[in-house]
Amino acid sequence: MENPEMVEFLRYVDDLIAATSSGAIEWTRANPTTVIWETRSTAPARISLQLVDSLGRTTTADGRIIRKRERSYLLQLTDLRHTPPRQRLSVSGADEPAINERLRRLYDTAASGLSKKGLEFLREILPPRTQ
Amino acid sequence: MTPESLQQLSEQVHELAARRFWTMPDFWINLAVGIGSIIFSILAFVEAKRAKRAAIEAGKAVKLQTVTIELTEIAQKLDRVEPGMLFSDARDLLAEISRRLRRATAPYATDPELINAITAVREALDAAQESLRSVRPSDPTKENETPDAVYYGMESELASVNNCVADLMGLFEMKSVAPADSQVQRRFWLWKRAAKPLPPSAARAKAAGTENAAVTDSKE
Fold first, then answer.
1. pTM of the model
2. Which one-letter DSSP state was computed for residue B82?
3. In a mutagenesis test of the B interface, which of A27, A28, A29, A31 is the best target, namely the one with the most B β-carbons within 10 Å?
4. Spatial distance between the Cα atoms of A91 and A11, rounded to a whole number of angstroms
5. ipTM of this predicted structure
6. What is the pLDDT of residues A94-118, one digit of tens each?
7. Which member of A48, A52, A53 has the closest CB to residue B146?
């Protein structure tokens, strides 16, 4: 059963997805598996979203325990008004599949946007095709 | 010399030449001394061979203890990994433990009692290298913007390496307490391993090259 905080958080993630899709939020890539968005508008803050691959254990139908790759997402919110910056929120999708799925959509949307921007810039700098 | 003394001397020489060698006490004394010498030589050879084998076993035992101590130090380094780790620190740590693990386990790579554990360690190290690549910062000057990214990206793989190191430590400790008795036993293990057919899941996984069947196989 979802608790009210989780429902509220999922709503905010949906807002982030929508803002990313519309281009209102510009993510940047910190490393191959982490994207960050830094805002200075109202309250300086940074959101980082990291893709984490880990080895988990699952039980098969016949009772054997096998290891398999599990992909989860970690979202962290940092308040930049303080020195040093303070972490306000850290949510791991490994704890809750519903959250993980939503964060996956956010990550994919952000990564896709980064790729598109990169391709657009590449298209701008390439010389025109000769026919 | 007078002819009579020459005659006597000649008769004595003839008498000595006519006697059989085994009727002479000198022969038996020399024979006994020779046989005794051979026996003591053989005994000395056997003892020297035993001493050599004991020295080799003692050397192996010391080597096992050295490797166990090395693995303990590696495990302690992995225990100290914590959030806030920089990419350069992670790279140096992984390079160090990778080098030390491979060096420590290389002499035992074909040992039938250790081969599975050593293979698991090497696979875990490869996976850790892969995870290190996934957290390489795009801009090293901005690494402090995501201070925990390296730790979270590598935590699982480093824990896996630590677990494999613990397995190896246990096996080495067991080996130092109860070493294999002889080359015959070692050859028996090698033959048994070669002759044993793989379970179907392991055979499929070996063909597919996946990780899961290795764990499943160990459970079976």
1. 0.71
2. -
3. A31
4. 14
5. 0.83
6. 888 999 999 999 999 999 888 888 8
7. A48
